[in-house]
Specification:
The protein contains 1 helix and 8 strands. It has about 160 residues and is of the alpha+beta class. Strands 1-2-3-4-5-6-7-8 form an 8-stranded antiparallel beta barrel.
Length: about 160
């Protein structure tokens, strides 16, 4: 290959790279994304699908009595930046405390949960996700730290 041909190929590659960069910069989506996604974070009014008392049913293969049943109380976290919720999950032993943030669409609440040691020497911690299906139904999953499998849960407004 001659030096002249190498220079020509190099120049062509540089020009194509510059053209691709300019095209990529010009073809960005409009600010704000799709039209149905609010630009502002959720407000307390938009989080009302979660706030309240729920009858909760969940899976737990380690418990032969499951599907398990309990209660879930959810309220707005007054100390947070306006997009957080706190919850209390009543189950066997001590209640688990949930804390998490809302998605911008105010349809998903996700975060961490913790249940203090109930005397067995093993406090339970993990993460969760709950999605509003309608004003009276939540579905999602929770997963204990140190496990590879998430378990499903469903809540119906009390």
């Amino acid at each position: 290959m001659t030096i002249r041909l190498c220079h020509a190929l190099l120049a062509l590659a540089v020009m194509l790279g510059a053209a691709t960069t300019v095209e990529a910069q010009l073809s960005r989506p409009p600010v704000g994304g799709p039209g149905d996604v609010p630009i502002n974070p959720p407000t307390s009014r938009s989080m009302q699908d979660f706030v309240g008392t729920w009858r909760l049913t969940w899976q737990d293969p380690g418990n032969p009595d499951c599907p398990c049943r309990g209660s879930l109380w959810i309220d707005i976290d007054e100390n947070a930046d306006g997009i957080s919720l706190d919850g209390r999950w009543r189950m066997k032993g001590a209640d688990a405390v949930l804390h998490g943030t809302m998605s911008y669409q105010a349809k998903v609440w996700s975060g961490r949960f913790a249940q203090p040691d109930d005397g067995t020497g093993f406090p339970v911690k993990g993460h969760f996700r709950l999605e509003s299906r309608d004003a009276n139904t939540l579905t999602g999953s929770y997963q204990r730290d140190g496990t590879a499998v998430a378990f499903s849960w469903t809540a119906v407004r009390d």
